[in-house]
Amino acid sequence: MHDANKPTPKDGTSGAAGPSVEHPSAQAVTPPDAAPVETPVEMADVPVVLDLPAEPASVHVIVMRDRTRIVVSGEVDADLSADLQEATSDAEATGLPIEVDAQHVTFMDSSGIAFLARLASRSAERVRVLHAPETVRFLLEVTKIGDLLDLVDEPEAGEPDADAPDHGLPTIPRPTPPDVVA
C-alpha cells in the first residue's frame, strides 16, 4: 500500500522492487518554462462504433369512432410482450376494426410477429398495418403472416390523414408542392 506521506522516488519506480511500468496513455508533463512540443495525432483505421441507447419501446391503444388503432414504436421484442398482449385484449374488447401503426418500429422479433398473428386470427375483420418499415415487411413476408394482414402506406379515400389532428376543429390544408418538370 502507498503511504501518502512518503515521497515517491524520482526515477519512476513506485519504491517497490521491480521495473517501472508506464501506462500506454500516460503523457509526459512539460515544465511551465519549457517550449511546448507538438506531437502528431494518429487516427486509428478501425471504425468507431457508438453504443447508443436503444429507442424506448411503447404500445398505445387509441379508440376512435370507427376503429381501434394500436401504435407500436421502438424495439418490439420479448420485453414488450406483456404490453402487446394487454393491447390485444383492449383492442378486441372494443369490437371495432383494428389497425396497427408501425411506422416508428426500429426492431421486431418473434414477439412482434406473434402479436400481429394473434390480432389477425382473433379479429372479425382484416387487421391493417400502417406504414410498416422494411424490416417489419420482410418479417411479415418471410413468416407469411403478411398474408393475413393488409399492409397500408396511404390513407384510403375519404379517410382522414393519419397525421391530421383529430380534434374536430377546422384545419388549414397543407399546400401541395408543384410538380417538378425536368
In short:
The chain has 3 helices and 5 strands; from the N terminus they run E-E-H-E-H-E-H-E.
Describe this protein's structure.
The protein has 182 residues and is an alpha/beta fold. It has a domain at 58-152: STAS domain (Transcription Regulator spoIIAA), CATH 3.30.750.24. Helix content is 20%, strand content 19%. The chain has three helices and five strands. The chain has helices at residues 81-94, 110-122, 134-143; strands at 58-63, 68-76, 98-108, 127-130, 149-152. It has a five-stranded mixed beta sheet with strand order 1-2-3-4-5. The longest helix is centred in the middle third of the chain and has 14 residues, at 81-94.
Q: What is the alpha-carbon Rg in Å?
A: 30 Å
Strand content: 15-25%
Name the CATH architecture of the domain at 58-152: 2-Layer Sandwich
Quick one: how many beta strands? 5
Shape: globular
Look up the CATH topology of the domain at 58-152.
Transcription Regulator spoIIAA
The CATH H-level superfamily of the domain at 58-152 is: STAS domain
Structural class: alpha/beta
InterPro entries: MlaB-like_STAS (IPR058548), STAS_dom (IPR002645), STAS_dom_sf (IPR036513)
Region (Disordered): 1-35, 154-182
Domain STAS: 70-149
Biased composition (Pro residues): 172-182
Write the layout of secondary structure elements.
Layout: E1 58-63, E2 68-76, H1 81-94, E3 98-108, H2 110-122, E4 127-130, H3 134-143, E5 149-152
Parallel strand pairs: 2-3, 3-4, 4-5
Antiparallel strand pairs: 1-2
Helix pairs in contact: 1-2
